[in-house]
Amino acid sequence: MRIGRSSRLASLCVVLLLGGVRMADAEEGPASSPPEGPKPNMVGAYGPWLSKQVLGDGPARMSFRTDRWKSVDDWRKAARERTWDRIAPVDLGGEPEVRVDSTVEFDGLHIERLSWQLPGGPRTEAVFLKPVGAKGPLPAILGLHDHGGNKFLGWRKIARIGDEPTETVVAHQNEYYGGVAWANEIAKRGYAVLVHDTFPFASRRVRAADVPPRIRENGVDPEPNDAEGVKRYNRFASAHEHVMEKSLLSAGTTWPGVYVVEDQRALDVLCARPDVDPNRVGCAGLSGGGMRTVYLGGLDDRIRCAVAVGFMTTWRDFLLDKCFTHTWMAYTPLLPRDLDFPEILGLRTPAPTMVLNCNEDGLYTLSEMHRADDILRRTFEKAGAADAYRCNFYPGGHKFDLEMQKDAFAWFDRHLKHGF
Fold this sequence. Notes:
The protein is of the alpha/beta class. Helices cover about 40% and strands about 15% of the residues. The chain contains 14 helices and 9 strands. The chain has helices at about 5-20, 25-30, 45-55, 70-85, 165-175, 180-185, 215, 225-250, 255-270, 290-300, 315-320, 340-345, 365-380, 400-415; strands at about 100-105, 110-115, 125-130, 140-145, 190-195, 275-285, 305-310, 355-360, 390-395. Strands 1-2-3-5-4-6-7-8-9 form a 9-stranded mixed beta sheet, sandwiched between helices. Strand 8 (about 355-360), helix 13 (about 365-380) and strand 9 (about 390-395) form a beta-alpha-beta unit. Helix 3 (about 45-55) runs antiparallel to helix 11 (about 315-320). The relative contact order is 0.14.
C-alpha cells in the first residue's frame, strides 16, 4: 500500500534514530559511543568538503526555489537552455524514416514491430501497441525501458508480442514488474504505446565483437535463448560503461546527450502517427527508465504527463552515498551546480508529474528521496501548481509492481483521458 506524508515523516525519523546511538549504548558510557569523525562516504575525508563547499547546502544557482526568477516560464526557459548546454546533445537529425517489419494481434492488442536508422550505430528496433479495433487518435505513452544491469534487452523488458518469452525476459519481469509487461497492460486501457531500444541496449547495444580484444575480454554476442551467454554479455557491457563514458566525454558529449535525443526521435515517431493524439502524450519508466523520464520529461514539452519510477534522489546522495549503485548514464558534468537532480524533472512545472519510490530501495538513501520530494513539492507550489505533482512511497525494494502500476495508470487516465 502507499504510505502517506505523515507516515513518510515517521519512516524518516526511524532512519535518523537508527543512524544515532542506541539507548543501550548511551547507558553503557563513552566506551560504546560511536567513533568521532565524519560519517563514512564514497570519497572519505573529502566528502564533507565536496558536499558543503563545492556542491553547497542551499538551492543551486538556477533553482526556481531562489528569488531570482520573476515567473516559472522565465525560469524554465533559462534553466532548460543551461541543461541542454550541459548535456551537450548530439545531432541525430529529424524524424526518422520508420519501417514496419511485422504486424500481429496478441492478447487483444494490435502490435507492430518497427525499426528506424539513426545517423550513428545499429538500427533501432521498437514495438507499437494499441487495442485491436481502437479508433484514433488515442492518448499515448512512450514506454521507457529500464537499465537493470541488462543491456542485452531493451523493449522486451516491458512489452510482449506473443512469441515465447525467453528465460531472461520472464525472470526480469517477475523481479521488477509483478510478472507482467506493463506496456501491454496500459495499452489495454485504451492507449497507444511505443517502446524502443535506446542507446546502448538491445538493438542499439555495443557488440562485443566490435571492440578490441583487450576491452572485450570474455564478452560474447549470444543468441536470445542463451541465458548464460546473455549473462556473459552483460558482464562485458557493465565493464564497458566506464570506457563508453570516457569516449563520450572525449567526443564532446555526455550519455544524456545521446539517449535523450534518441528518446526524442522515438517521440517524433509516436507523435507523427495518425492514430495518436500528439496533445495527449505521456512517458514513464522504472529505474533507468525513470532516469530517462527525468531528463525527457523535464526537457520536452510534448510530454504532457510524466511518471518517474524508482529513480529520484539528490546529487548529494549520489556524491556521498550511492554513486556506486548507479550507471554512468545518470550524470551530467557541471549540472549539479545549476540544478539539483529532482529539478531536472521539475523543469516540466506546472505539467502533471508523478514520482513513485520504495522505502527499502537500496539504490538510494531514504532521507534524500524525501528531500528530493520536498524539492519538487516546493517547486510546484511556488509555481502555483501543487495539484500537478504527486509523490508516493511504497514498502519493499526496487520495483514497479502491480499496485504501483495501478496508481501510475490512474494518473495517466486523469491527465491524458479525462477532460478531453
